[in-house]
């Protein structure tokens, strides 16, 4: 039933995807959204997968490959890490990615980014990385990263496609449209390097506090809304 619904959704709400060719001719920055244990590593908290998840593990693998190429080319990387104070909840979600815990750290495959000179790590305490980049003095880490590196386009990957990724993409596009992000021109989402979580309807029905969240369906919806906001969706990433 779910697969039929996803097929119908893809037919009625198609998401245009094209291969993305990257070269040094256009300055590109890579944005990683929440590649932390609390969302990606099995058994690592309330919002982590409870068993191996093909979509999430594929997202991690694709992100690791991209990150290594960007690092080798000395291209800029910005990684958002979900990070919450234990006494400040984030409704409607249960406690997760508490500051100082294993949950709030990068997945093991990406820990090397902590010592990568071209990588900027930003711990955020909210869903939207753009909002989470705002400092107390009003400056914005993401905006400054774009300006300081003269980035013309950002390639966005991570989790969840329909939550943190989509919200960040929407805010970045709105800021670009307001002229707040020069010289940024394009925001691109790489579909194979994004993922979301899975709560089937039959599971949700057993817990009144849980809302169903079919993975493939919500992944597609996240891509569709990002596309509707003005993002480009990449089916694959190629380096010239």
Structure notes:
A seven-stranded parallel β-sheet has the order 1-7-6-5-2-3-4, sandwiched between helices. The chain contains eight helices and seven strands. The longest helix has 19 residues, at 54-72. α6 runs parallel beside α8 (215-229). With 240 residues, it is α/β, with parallel strands linked by helices. It has helices at 2-12, 37-40, 54-72, 129-132, 141-149, 161-177, 201-204, 215-229; strands spanning 18-22, 28-33, 77-82, 119-124, 153-159, 186-195, 232-239. α6 (161-177) links the parallel β5 (153-159) and β6 (186-195). The protein has one domain (24-239): Rossmann fold (3-Layer(aba) Sandwich). The termini are far apart. Residues 29-205 form the Isochorismatase-like domain. Belongs to the isochorismatase family. InterPro entries: Isochorismatase-like_dom, Isochorismatase-like_sf, NIC1.
Top keywords for this entry?
single chain, 240 residues, alpha/beta, Rossmann fold, seven-stranded parallel β-sheet, 8 helices, 7 strands, Isochorismatase-like_dom
């Amino acid at each position: 039933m779910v697969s039929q619904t996803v097929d119908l959704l893809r037919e009625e709400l198609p998401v245009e995807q094209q291969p993305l060719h990257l070269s040094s001719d256009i300055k590109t920055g890579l944005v990683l959204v929440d590649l932390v244990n609390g969302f990606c590593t099995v058994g690592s908290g309330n919002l982590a997968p409870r068993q191996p998840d093909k979509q999430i593990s594929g997202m991690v693998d694709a992100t690791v490959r991209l990150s290594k190429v960007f690092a080798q080319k000395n291209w800029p990387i910005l990684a958002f890490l979900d990070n919450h104070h234990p006494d400040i909840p984030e409704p409607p979600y249960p406690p997760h990615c508490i500051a100082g815990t294993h949950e709030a750290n990068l997945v093991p495959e990406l820990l090397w980014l902590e010592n990568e000179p071209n990588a900027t790590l930003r711990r955020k305490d909210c869903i939207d990385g753009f909002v989470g980049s705002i400092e107390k003095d009003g400056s914005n880490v993401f905006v400054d990263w774009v300006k300081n590196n003269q980035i013309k386009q950002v390639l966005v990957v991570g989790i969840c496609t329909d939550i943190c990724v989509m919200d960040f993409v929407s805010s970045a596009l709105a800021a670009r449209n307001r002229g707040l992000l020069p010289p940024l021109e394009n925001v691109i989402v790489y579909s194979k390097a994004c993922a979301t979580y899975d709560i089937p309807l039959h599971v949700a029905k057993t817990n009144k506090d849980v809302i169903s969240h079919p993975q493939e369906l919500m992944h597609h919806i996240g891509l569709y809304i990002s596309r509707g906001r003005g993002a480009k969706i990449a089916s694959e990433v190629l380096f010239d």
